[in-house]
């Protein structure tokens, strides 16, 4: 069983639902859901989102390993990227101002 299937099974059991109940809510057959849960069938992104919505969790909660907190794993990297993006936006604003100033200078000649 893969991580995704294991997480889906745990969510199902946590809610006290049978495979049949979940399959019905997802509008798929019981064997199709069983294959998802056992990892026999890979699920696409839209099905993953549907399952996450059903269990009221994020898709990251379903695809992450047990004990991992996907939000905290990338928190520092995300903050770093946000900071770099803000710096780039400041540079773009400065360059746009220079372009406007040069355009006005040429226009006045």
Task: Describe what this molecule looks like in 3D.
Keywords: Coiled coil, DNA-binding. Residues 78-105 form a coiled coil. This is Helix-turn-helix domain-containing protein. It comes from Pedobacter nyackensis. With 109 residues, this protein is an all-alpha fold. It folds into two domains: 3-63, Orthogonal Bundle (434 Repressor (Amino-terminal Domain)), CATH 1.10.260.40; 69-108. It has helices at 3-14, 19-26, 30-38, 45-55, 59-63, 70-73, 75-108. Helix 2 (19-26) packs across helix 3. It is elongated.
CATH topology (level 3) name of the largest domain = 434 Repressor (Amino-terminal Domain)
The H/E string reads HHHHHHH
Low-confidence stretches: none
Helix/strand/pairing category:
mainly alpha
Q: What is the radius of gyration computed over CA atoms, rounded to a whole number of angstroms?
A: 24 Å
Total strands: the figure is 0
- What about the largest sheet? none
> Share of helix among residues?
over 70%
- H/I helix tally: 7
Organism: Pedobacter nyackensis
Keywords: Coiled coil, DNA-binding
Coiled coil: 78-105
Pfam family, one: HTH_3
């Amino acid at each position: 069983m893969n991580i995704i299937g294991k997480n889906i099974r745990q969510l199902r059991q946590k809610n006290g639902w049978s495979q049949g109940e979940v399959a019905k809510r997802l509008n798929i057959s019981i064997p199709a859901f069983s294959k998802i849960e056992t990892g026999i069938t890979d699920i696409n992104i839209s099905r993953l989102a549907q399952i996450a919505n059903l269990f009221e969790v994020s898709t990251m909660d379903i695809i992450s390993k047990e004990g991992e907190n996907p939000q905290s794993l990338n928190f520092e990297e995300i903050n770093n990227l946000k900071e770099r993006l803000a710096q780039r936006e400041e540079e773009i604003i400065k360059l746009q101002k220079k372009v406007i100033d040069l355009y006005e200078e040429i226009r006045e000649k």
